């Protein structure tokens, strides 16, 4: 796990908008994300469900959007990849 | 955790939108289907396929009765609500009276393979120029998760708690394979929504089926295996694997027939 997060860490070629209030906490998006940059929150939304949160390393591949039953994601690709300082 | 990125609004630096929350033909995102349900995932690809063939202004859908029916009032094409199992016959009437339209049906396995099995068989045998779409979750989802004709052997449902038993309950009907054998069927395929690649492949099947209709080649059919964690009594996160391994090992995914296509 550690090395995946280290690798995923620093550059995002894309990003997602997450409409957390629509999420029903099914967790289908988590294993669907190839670089493994989505994880479930500890907080819950208004309807009582945990929801996904994004860490650096998104490629803008849309896999999360494709598997999500609740239309929670919108996907973008950056014109210039974004760099982040990440604590491994 | 400090490395969580803001995702409540679109990015503030230059970025290209790759995909929006919902397909354009869906009027709103919110729906009341269960967490982890596969039906909205399949619906997205169907609505995108209608747009991809450019038929959004001349599409008429005929929908059956199941959980997906609650989307009926929120889909931006003309829809007819059929009685349980009768959608292919209603679609036949619509297409014969309005041959310029693109006509699809949307049904569940209980609706299509139990309640109205003869309807889809005769529609295929006649080679009607309609596209029938089946959302196959192996259970009567909306009414509580009971066994249907597509439930696989060993599968636990509300009325096969020890698993479907061939001696007592009979064998599952592999409807896609059955329809593919009929001369009137020009295109038949079985997709799934258990991961992103299968969702994309299902989208291509739906588009080919609609193109088959547009070219007037005959009857077209796409079966989509969909998760029903509620009816299967399993956690939502286990749904995709269950779909792939338990249902997908019997109802195998792939194109089943492609007659005279491009
Ligand atoms: C003639 C008739 N019989 C029974 C019903 C009750 N009924 C409504 S939905 C449903 C289950 C449909 O199951 P399926 O077609 O597999 O769709 P799913 O909910 O699984 O998507 C049933 C039996 C009905 N509406 N009409
Ligand atoms: S777009 Fe791809 S990489 Fe980005 S969060 Fe979604 S699945 Fe992960
Ligand atoms: S797949 Fe969609 S509904 Fe399920 S947890 Fe992820 S964002 Fe929420
Ligand atoms: S009962 Fe099954 S098919 Fe119906 S909404 Fe729930 S998960 Fe989906
Ligand atoms: Mg069903």
Give the total of domains of chain B.
1
Largest sheet of chain B: 7 strands, mixed
Low-confidence stretches of chain A: 1-8
Instruction: Just name the CATH architecture of chain B.
Output: 3-Layer(aba) Sandwich
The major pleated sheet of chain A works out as: 2 strands, antiparallel
Distance between the termini of chain A: 11 Å
**Most extensive interface: pair and counts?**
A-B, 47 and 44 residues
Mean pLDDT of chain A: 91
Which band does the percent of strand residues of chain A land in?
25-35%
**Helical segment tally of chain B?**
9
Strand order of the largest sheet of chain B: 3-2-4-5-9-8-10
**What order do the helices and strands of chain B follow?**
EHEEHEHHEEEHHEHEHHE
Order of helices and strands of chain A: HEHEEHE
- Helices and strands of chain B: which structural class? alpha/beta
CATH topology description of chain A: Alpha-Beta Plaits
Mean pLDDT, all residues of chain B? 97
Binned, the helix content of chain B reads 25-40%
Describe this protein's structure.
The complex is a heterodimer of chains A (88) and B (262). Residues 1-8 of chain A have low confidence and may be disordered. Chain A is 18% helix and 28% strand. With 88 residues, chain A is of the alpha+beta class. Chain A has one domain (2-78): Alpha-Beta Plaits, CATH 3.30.70. Chain A has three helices and four strands. Chain A has helices at 2-8, 29-32, 63-67; strands at residues 11-18, 38-40, 52-54, 73-83. Chain B has one domain (39-255): Rossmann fold (3-Layer(aba) Sandwich). Chain B contains nine helices and ten strands. Chain B has helices spanning 39-52, 87-97, 109-115, 117-125, 166-169, 175-180, 196-214, 229-232, 239-247; strands spanning 15-19, 59-63, 78-81, 102-108, 131-136, 139-140, 146-147, 185-192, 219-225, 254-258. A seven-stranded mixed beta sheet of chain B has the order 3-2-4-5-9-8-10, with helices on both faces. In chain B, helix 7 (196-214) links the parallel strand 8 (185-192) and strand 9 (219-225). Chain B is globular and about 60 Å long. Chains A and B meet through strand 1, helix 2, helix 3 and strand 4 of A and strand 1, helix 1 and helix 7 of B. Strand 4 of chain A pairs antiparallel with strand 1 (15-19) of chain B. The complex binds thiamine diphosphate (TPP), iron/sulfur cluster (3 copies) and magnesium ion. The site of thiamine diphosphate (TPP) has 17 residues of chain B, from helix 3 and strand 6.
């Amino acid at each position: 796990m550690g090395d995946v997060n280290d690798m995923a860490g620093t550059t995002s070629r894309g990003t997602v908008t997450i409409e957390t209030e629509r999420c029903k906490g099914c967790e289908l998006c988590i294993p669907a994300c190839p670089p493994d940059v989505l994880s479930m929150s500890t907080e819950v939304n208004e309807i009582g469900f945990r929801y996904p949160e994004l860490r650096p390393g998104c490629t803008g591949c849309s896999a999360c959007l494709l598997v999500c039953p609740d239309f929670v994601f919108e996907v973008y690709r950056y014109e210039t990849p974004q760099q982040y300082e990440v604590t491994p | 955790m400090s490395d969580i990125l803001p995702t409540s609004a679109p990015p503030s630096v230059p970025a290209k939108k790759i995909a929006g929350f919902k397909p354009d033909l869906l009027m709103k995102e919110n729906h009341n289907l269960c967490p982890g349900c596969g039906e909205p995932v399949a619906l997205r690809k169907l609505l995108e396929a209608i747009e991809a063939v450019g038929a959004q202004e001349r599409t008429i859908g005929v929908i059956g009765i199941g959980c997906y029916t609650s989307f009926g009032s929120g889909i931006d094409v003309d829809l007819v609500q059929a009685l349980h199992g009768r959608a292919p016959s209603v679609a036949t009437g619509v297409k014969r009276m309005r041959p310029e339209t693109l006509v699809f049906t949307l049904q569940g396995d209980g609706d299509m393979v139990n309640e109205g099995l003869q309807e889809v068989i005769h529609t295929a045998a006649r080679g009607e120029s309609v596209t029938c779409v089946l959302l196959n979750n192996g259970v009567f989802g909306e009414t509580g998760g009971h066994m249907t004709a597509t439930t696989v052997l060993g599968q636990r449902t509300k009325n096969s708690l020890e698993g479907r038993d061939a001696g007592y309950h009979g064998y599952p009907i592999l409807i896609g394979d059955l329809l593919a054998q009929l001369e009137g069927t020009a295109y038949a395929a079985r997709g799934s929504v258990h991961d992103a690649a299968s969702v994309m492949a299902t989208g291509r099947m739906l588009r080919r089926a609609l193109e088959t209709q547009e070219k007037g080649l005959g009857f077209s059919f796409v079966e989509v295996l969909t998760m029903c964690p509620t009816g299967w009594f399993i956690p939502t996160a286990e749904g995709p694997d269950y779909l792939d391994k338990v249902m997908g090992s019997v109802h195998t995914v792939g194109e089943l027939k492609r007659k005279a296509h491009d």
